[in-house]
Specification:
Number of helices: 6
Radius of gyration: 19 Å
Number of domains: 2
Number of strands: 19
CATH superfamily of the largest domain: Vaccinia Virus protein VP39
Order of helices and strands: EEEEEEEEEEHEHEHEHEEEHEHEE
CATH topology of the largest domain: Rossmann fold
Length: 302
């Protein structure tokens, strides 16, 4: 009888764990179809592209304040139906985030990751000790804030100065400005290698590497080619009593089984559990869930 892939306990593979970010009050996906999704961000309604939405729209689009149109050259632009504030704030539980439509369709937040934020806070809270966390490719810092709110000391690293500054704003908005968050603007792999040489260690690591990118000196990053080395180097930063290792991924060529297997191979012999799956958001009309990416987690036993 065949095994169901997705999670490892020793050498046993069991069912994948798909997770749903269903704890939102200030955000929701209202409709999706024709490669687009209509979302509510607080009291502002946006329509944005999503390449995974391959089915047609059922009916007509409801109220929307802005639409992002992709261009043939891979870019795009916003069409505003009314004048919007330059930025506004939404809340998730006790965290506050600044939202702003960017030139690349994004808003500064990935709402599906709320499922991971809850897990981060719960896992750190259960540890009953001071936890030192490293967040690589930290973007605007939602996972950083979740860890800091749970009492952890966090090192937040991203190569984009503007994103690191945005994280600082979110920290202050969430009342975490005086928490122990260290903000670093750097290439993540280079930072990891320096931390290894310095002998620094972390009890928990989380990362959200891009599919493709360029470093400050023109270095090309390709996830399918470079993720293995990044994992190989970063696991060397784990302390003698590590708590977890979390990887998020939005690269369509990588499956949850590949991601969790790669992480499991780097934690072979460490005990605990390694598992992965899809991460999604509920949809108010039409399909019940929109898959929004994949994740893999290793967490210590007990």
């Amino acid at each position: 009888m065949g095994k169901t892939l997705g999670e490892t306990h020793g050498n046993t593979l069991v069912k994948p764990r798909h997770i749903l970010a269903d704890g939102w009050a200030d955000y929701e996906i209202l409709q999706c179809g024709d490669g687009l999704k209509r979302e509510r961000w607080g009291d502002i309604f946006l329509i944005r592209p999503d390449p995974q939405i391959i089915w047609p729209l059922d009916g007509e689009w409801g109220r929307h304040d802005a639409v992002y149109h992709r261009s043939d050259n891979g870019g795009g632009q916003w069409e505003f139906k009314k004048k919007l504030p330059e930025s506004w704030c939404i809340k998730y539980r006790d965290l506050v985030f600044k939202i702003r439509p960017t030139h690349f369709k994004h808003t500064g937040l990935f709402p599906e990751q709320a499922a991971n934020w809850d897990w981060i806070k719960e896992t750190i809270g259960r540890a009953g000790r001071r936890v030192n966390v490293l967040n690589l490719f930290g973007y605007t810092g939602a996972a950083t804030l979740a860890a800091a709110a749970a009492g952890a000391s966090v090192c937040h690293v991203d190569a984009a100065k503007g994103m690191v500054q945005w994280c600082g704003e979110n920290a202050r908005l969430s009342g975490l400005g005086d928490k122990q968050i260290r903000f670093i603007v750097d290439d993540c792999l280079k930072f990891v290698r320096r931390e290894i040489r310095r002998g620094n260690r972390y009890d928990a690591v989380m990362m959200d590497p891009p599919s493709y990118g360029r470093g400050a000196e023109g270095e090309v990053w390709k996830l399918e080619r470079d993720l293995w080395e990044l994992l190989e180097q970063t696991v060397l930063l784990l302390s003698d009593n590590p708590l977890y290792f979390l990887v998020n991924c939005y690269t369509t060529g990588i499956s949850p089984t590949i991601l969790s297997s790669a992480l499991a191979m780097h934690r072979r012999g460490a005990g605990g559990a390694c598992y992965g799956g899809e991460i999604g958001l509920p949809v108010s009309e039409g399909i019940p869930v929109l898959p929004c990416g994949i994740y893999a987690r290793w967490e210590a036993a007990g």
